[in-house]
Amino acid sequence: MKKYLVALDQGTTSSRAIVFDRSQQIVASAQKEFPQLYPQAGWVEHDPLELYSSQYGVMMEAITRGGIDPAEIAAIGITNQRETTIVWEKATGRPIYPAIVWQCRRTAALCDRLRADGLTEHIRAVTGLVPDAYFSATKIRWILDHVPGAQERAERGELLFGTVDSWLVWKLTRGRVHATDVTNASRTMLFDIRRLDWDETLLQVLRIPRCMLPDVRPSSGDFGTCNIQGVEIPIAGAAGDQQAALFGQCCFAPGEAKNTYGTGCFLLMNTGETPCVSRHGLVTTIAAGLGGHVTYALEGSVFVGGAVIQWLRDEMRFLSEASDAEYYAQKVDSTGGVYFVPAFTGLGAPYWDMYARGAIVGITRGTKREHIIRAAQESIAYQSMDLVAAMEKDTGVPLRELRVDGGASRDAFLMQFQADMLATPVRRPVIRETTALGAAYLAGLAVGIWHDPDELRRQWRCDVSFLPHMTAEQREKNRRGWAKAVGRSLDWAKEE
Ligand SMILES: Nc1ncnc2c1ncn2[C@@H]1O[C@H](COP(=O)(O)OP(=O)(O)O)[C@@H](O)[C@H]1O
Ligand SMILES: O=P(O)(O)OC[C@H](O)CO
């Protein structure tokens, strides 16, 4: 009997595969980190072949570890780092350039031109986004401009574009399927989120040939099959990792929200079947929906979340493990007035400043390593607090609780500080691999392993609730200090 679902979670820093059974228990998993490439200041790339090989490798490792017969696998669900842009040759499957990662700022000047040309409103109205180097559209333009002959080849139909989901689908189906799902399409800055089609105006402005774009499909459904040891296994779900996490957290009803603390932080709130247009710096995006219905979400994206801890570990050598941050932060009872704005790749929502850069302010002769570590952790919560504030202004409704997940949500100090700064309960579920779980749900619903979202909702279990304790006065003082620190980091890298 088919009893397993394999979720492939291709993230920014690692590829993971998790095998779930029908009762949503993790049967086996495997994970592999891959190199981050920083060819110039502000640029971030991945090797697309490495993304695929690490993802394929961990899938096979998890299947082997779990002692699973491929014939028992009901379906594969894919979830992925979003916006990251890959262009490859249709005939050979060879990428023509490294993957330009969502964090990469190289197209900031092109985004400035789009703004200067008066396209901001069109982009907002049609795609739900803001003109920013974060999204895929200008990254495609950059590749077509910088790889010799690429524009002509793309126009002749010889090149294909895809976000990481499309690339994995293409590779896993051995070049048979060139498709993406609506959630990933909604992050390209080329997709009309109401008409559910590529937007002709933006394609023309950016001279992107329609023939290189993938077919856009519902997140739960048919993405071809992958042959594992002679067995054709349906790829039955695909969604961007943040939308998958929203789904995995069972935020199926309008008003339900989650925040994922991974490399970045991504706060998404389900807003139902009508897109909610933000007036406070958030974007409108498509959430993973079912049964042909399109569900929308408001999203706030923070570019550097857990990555600030990684930076303290790898570049500053302040920590030997990311998990040590919690210990050091609690060795001091405050940051001693230090604020850390980790705007390493600019600031995302709600500031959208591609030229902001990192700042550590308030340092005195008494500042110790522990203060800086604590300030780094607090910065993750402050940035998320800014998103909640924007969301509450947009919806006019205070957030009742925040569901959390992602690598850095393990950090209890951070979660408590988050609850304190939001004055809202923060709830961490038993299964923290909600991104992979969301992908498994989407695939499992498509092949009939589960029948409806209510069945899934009944399974959501809270592990820890962090309740707010901070006084309103302290909260306000912290909030003011943070706002002042952010002001110091804005516009830093803009050339005179
Ligand atoms: N205990 C911890 N405390 C704080 N940050 C952590 C902790 N564990 C992991 N992280 C951070 O979380 C991130 C990894 O989370 P993960 O969800 O695996 O990310 P991604 O999916 O973006 O690759 C890293 O940036 C790491 O620094
Ligand atoms: O890989 P993650 O978990 O950091 O997520 C990356 C986001 O999808 C970028 O938008």
UniProtKB/TrEMBL annotation:
Glycerol binds at residues 82-83, 134, 241-242. ATP binds at residues 12-14, 263, 306, 310, 407. Pathway: Polyol metabolism; glycerol degradation via glycerol kinase pathway; sn-glycerol 3-phosphate from glycerol: step 1/1. Residues 258-446 form the Carbohydrate kinase FGGY C-terminal domain. SUPFAM superfamilies: Actin-like ATPase domain (SSF53067). ADP binds at residues 12, 16, 263, 306, 407. The keyword Secreted does not apply. Activated by phosphorylation and inhibited by fructose 1,6-bisphosphate (FBP). Residues 4-248 form the Carbohydrate kinase FGGY N-terminal domain. One of its GO terms (molecular function) is glycerol kinase activity. Keywords: ATP-binding, Glycerol metabolism, Kinase, Nucleotide-binding, Transferase. Its EC number is 2.7.1.30. Sn-glycerol 3-phosphate binds at residues 12, 82-83, 134, 241. Gene3D superfamilies: 3.30.420.40. CDD domains: FGGY_EcGK_like (cd07786). The keyword Transferase applies. Homotetramer and homodimer (in equilibrium). Key enzyme in the regulation of glycerol uptake and metabolism. Catalyzes the phosphorylation of glycerol to yield sn-glycerol 3-phosphate. Belongs to the FGGY kinase family. This is Glycerol kinase. It comes from Faecousia intestinalis. The gene is glpK.
